[in-house]
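ok so for the tutorial part 2 we go from a plain amino acid sequence to predicted structure tokens. step 1 is just haveing the sequence, like this:
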Amino acid sequence: MLDDFLIRAALAGVGLALATGPLGAFVVWRRMAYFGDATAHAAVLGVALALATDLPIAAGTLVVATAMAVTVAGLAARGWAMDTTLGVLAHSALAFGLVGVSYFPAVRTDLSAYLFGDILAVSKTDLALIWAGAAAVVGLLLWRWQALLTSTLSEDLAHASGVNPNRERLVLVLAMALTVAVALKVVGALLIAAMLIIPAAAARGLARSPEGMALGAALIGAIATLAGLQLSLWQDTPAGPSIIVAASAVFALSAALGRMRLA
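step 2 — the prediction. this is what the tokens look like for a chain of 263 residues:
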């Protein structure tokens, strides 16, 4: 019989995978990996804000991640060179967050939970928040799916179809900020981007359509969650990083299968 905390952990990871799968597909298609990193690193600054203002951790994370995402989207729309800008913003947000958290001595010992996640400590309240956030992200992506695909394929085509690419970019960044807020408890700020990118990259070589890639990424994320939790139990390794290790193994298998199909 599985313990309750394991069931909650598995449900939390699967719920997160439902959101990171289709969202990660857009991150891969649009080459927004560093953008996801910047938004995820801002989560630590959100933790510091929440501690300083007595807000719930998820609320503080959502506020700061949204501010970071909107700022980066605005700079991208103005034509800024994003590699350097994202590097500065990502690492600055992480550093400011770590410095801010250091002013709360009681939290220092729990800092690894914010950096690498603490999925085994997910409560029923956390589980409800994760599934509610994942449902909101999936609903948003389903609502804007065709417009998002069109603007991802070509901004000129989007304009010709009456779609505003800047609006669709904003939809994606808001979905990413919400995903970061609910993912912090599961995989931590340093591994959220990996959960977005690796399952989607693994699904890309196996899928035959955009919808197939999005669904495949969600499935791979769920499988990686369950396999990572099992690995954590067997080897007494950190659960969050173990999930990413499992996702990386699936990616390696997917890449091998893709090469075999081309051979």
